[in-house]
Write a structure and sequence with these properties.
- By secondary structure, the chain is an alpha/beta fold.
- The protein has helices at 24-36, 56-71, 83-91, 104-112; strands at 2-8, 11-20, 43-54, 75-79, 99-101.
- It has a single domain (2-112), classed as STAS domain (Transcription Regulator spoIIAA, 2-Layer Sandwich).
- Helix 1 links the parallel strand 2 and strand 3 (43-54).
- It starts with a strand and ends with a helix.
């Protein structure tokens, strides 16, 4: 997986591409959130529209980010999962845990409320 990140209006926006497998590259996202991200940032959007495949390690990474944001009093929203990733979220019932939207703009609106 490759990712880019930006801060916009106190919201961390991550755009991920490739496969979310929980490998070393994926762990860089967690390292960034744990070590480099300001403790006051508690809202995160992850655009996973370009993630083709995700395994349990990838799900674990998303759950860890969600937990970190909620422990800070915020939340995490996933944007536009592919059909295969959405099926995985439904099978694992994580679609009920994560906020899921069709666009980054919609996710920003949800997190601002």
């Amino acid at each position: 997986m490759e990712f880019t990140h930006q801060l916009k209006n106190q919201i961390l926006i991550i755009e991920a591409t490739g496969d979310l497998l929980g490998l070393q590259n994926d762990v860089k996202v967690l390292e960034y959130i744990n070590n480099d991200l300001d403790e006051n940032i508690n809202k995160c959007i992850i655009d996973i529209s370009n993630i083709n495949y995700m395994n349990s390690s990838g799900l674990s990474m998303l759950i860890r980010i969600l937990t970190k944001m909620r422990n800070r009093g915020g939340d995490l929203v996933l944007v536009n999962p592919s059909e295969s990733v959405n099926k995985l979220l439904v099978i694992t019932k994580l679609n009920a845990i994560f906020g899921i939207t069709k666009s980054v703009a919609e996710a920003e609106d949800i997190l601002r409320k």
